[in-house]
UniProtKB/TrEMBL annotation:
Belongs to the peptidase M20A family. This is Peptidase M20 dimerisation domain-containing protein. Mn(2+) 1 binds at residues 132, 167, 445. Pfam families: M20_dimer, Peptidase_M20. Signal peptide: none annotated. Binds 2 manganese ions per subunit. InterPro entries: ArgE/DapE_CS, CNDP/DUG1, Cyt/Met_Dipeptidase, Peptidase_M20, Peptidase_M20_dimer.
Length: 478
């Protein structure tokens, strides 16, 4: 029996054990955005490092330094770099993933405790981080462990880079990658990232594009302290009123961004691109089901995909400093901060986006003739990534998908962002493949996040099988 077949067989026999391992890591609440959970993020990094080292991998732990989160100095969680296998006759594949997760509280509406993995009768493995990104990160580890257990060598040398700050803007990571490009990452032939999702729930895909993100805070302040609305309402410039006016100017309710010039740098849709939307596993009916309500703006499926993948969008996320609890409070907040972000696409330049947004908001604020002060602050950004799906790395991903799932994968782009993708491509000068494990309805960042058992188990096979395919691919034909 071929090695890959033996591997598949052992994966099938180990299913329950794999689920137990997922349970173990979901139980570590490694929320990078919550200062009080920083020890848990570090604990999760330690767990990964220990497990890889037990297997015989050589790890290097990079501590990127300190972070200031809401006034507290915090240690940034470690970036775990690793090397497993060092055979000069084999190719070297670098894999990336993140071991931090989004926040989650039972009171957000979860059916069960978010950090206790629940195996549902329908096959859902429910828990925070199951699909984003602990399942896939475990996938690489379990693949290597299973090979060892079967007495098989991996067909390639594996390098890895696991970080604990992805959900909080990957602070510190770009520098680590640039610094290590000619050191730890030297000799990397291709990169593979498993941190996105299928377009639907049945057909696997390979992904060759991501949008960028530019995040802004819009602060308006006036009086030196909160005021009584009965005494001061209608007689002072209210920061919240100014802010609401400005936020309402950013985007219309059909999703069209109102910032002048913002669409000028957007690549036009070609006829060739038009054809790529045909035959994808994507329907508004399924999307409406995922949304739990049909709130879809566009009529045609392809327009929904275009606005997810290749047009910029602007979303309003929240207001800091505003009254937000239940009950009625007759207050005039003295200082408020609106939060919004743009998802950016080829060929938008982040600096230009920032300039246009700032100028527009300043102009609109001037029209209000307010005595308050307004400030636009860009807090973080990440660039879009777009790559050709014809590279041999993608051919290997497609071949592996066909072997494991029996179908040709869809070729997709994503609306979400993994800014480090472009950093790897540029700093290492190699091709990057996005090879997702989870499905469209997994609910990353949402309540009741899940990974289907089928996707977890077949996904572990897929990641392994991909390594066999890369090993046999002639990368020189790129
Ligand atoms: N896994 C996601 C990226 C993603 C999201 C891929 C949606 C495909 C679809 C990642 O963990 C994530 O949440 N990224 C952030 C990045 C941001 C903090 C810079 C995002 O997209 O908001
Ligand atoms: Mn992720
Ligand atoms: Mn995420």
């Amino acid at each position: 029996m071929a090695n890959v077949e033996k591997y598949f067989e052992l994966v099938d026999q180990s299913q329950q054990q794999f689920i137990e391992t997922l349970r173990e890591v979901v139980a570590i609440p490694s929320v990078s955005g919550d200062a009080s959970k920083r020890n848990e993020v570090i604990r999760m990094g330690n767990w990964l490092q220990a497990r890889w080292e037990a297997l015989g991998a050589v790890c290097k732990r990079v501590e990127p330094g300190k972070q200031n989160l809401d006034g507290t100095e915090l240690d940034l969680p470690p970036v775990i770099l690793g090397q497993y296998g060092n055979d000069p006759t084999k190719k070297t594949v670098l894999v990336y993933g993140h071991y931090d997760v989004q926040p989650a509280l039972l009171s957000d509406g979860w059916e069960t405790d978010p950090f206790t993995l629940v195996e549902k009768p329908d096959g859902r493995l429910v828990g925070r981080g199951s699909t984003d990104d602990k399942g896939p990160v475990l996938g690489w580890l379990l693949c290597a462990e299973t090979h060892k257990q079967a007495g098989l060598e991996l067909p390639v040398n594996l390098k890895f880079c696991f970080e604990g700050m992805e959900e909080s803007g990957s602070e510190g990571l770009d520098q680590v990658i640039v610094d290590e490009a000619d050191k730890w990452f030297r000799g990397t032939d291709v990169v593979c990232i498993s941190d996105n999702y299928w377009l639907g729930t049945n057909k696997p895909c390979l992904t060759h594009g991501l949008r960028g993100v530019s995040y802004f805070h819009l602060q308006v302040e006036g009086p030196g302290a909160d005021l009584h609305s009965g005494v001061f309402g209608g007689t002072v410039h209210e920061p919240m009123v100014d802010l609401v006016h400005l936020l309402a100017k950013l985007v219309d309710n059909k999703g069209r961004i109102q910032v002048p010039g913002i669409y000028d740098q957007v690549m036009p849709v070609t006829e060739e691109e038009e054809r790529t939307y045909e035959g994808l596993e994507f329907s508004h009916a399924a999307l409406a089901k995922d949304l739990k309500n049909d709130v879809i703006i566009h009529k045609e499926e392809r327009d929904t995909l275009k606005h997810r993948w290749r047009f910029p969008t602007l979303s309003i996320h929240g207001v800091e400093g505003a009254f937000h609890s239940s009950g009625d409070k007759t207050v005039i907040p003295a200082r408020v901060r609106g939060k919004f972000s743009l998802r950016t696409v080829p060929n938008m330049e982040p600096a230009k986006v920032s300039e246009l947004v700032t100028k527009y908001l300043n102009d609109e604020f001037a029209k209000l003739n307010s005595k308050n002060t307004m400030r636009v602050i860009e807090t973080h950004g990440g660039r879009w990534w777009y790559s050709s799906p014809n590279h041999p790395n993608f051919v290997a991903g497609a071949a592996a998908t066909e072997k494991v799932y029996g179908v040709k994968p869809d070729l997709t782009r994503e609306g979400g962002s993994i800014p480090v993708t472009l950093t790897f491509e540029e700093a290492l000068g190699v091709n990057v493949l996005l090879l997702p494990m989870g499905a469209a309805d997994d609910g990353a960042h949402s309540i009741n996040e899940k990974l289907d058992k089928r996707n977890f188990i077949q996904g572990i096979k897929l990641l392994g099988c991909y390594l066999y395919e890369v090993a046999q691919t002639d990368l020189a034909t790129a």
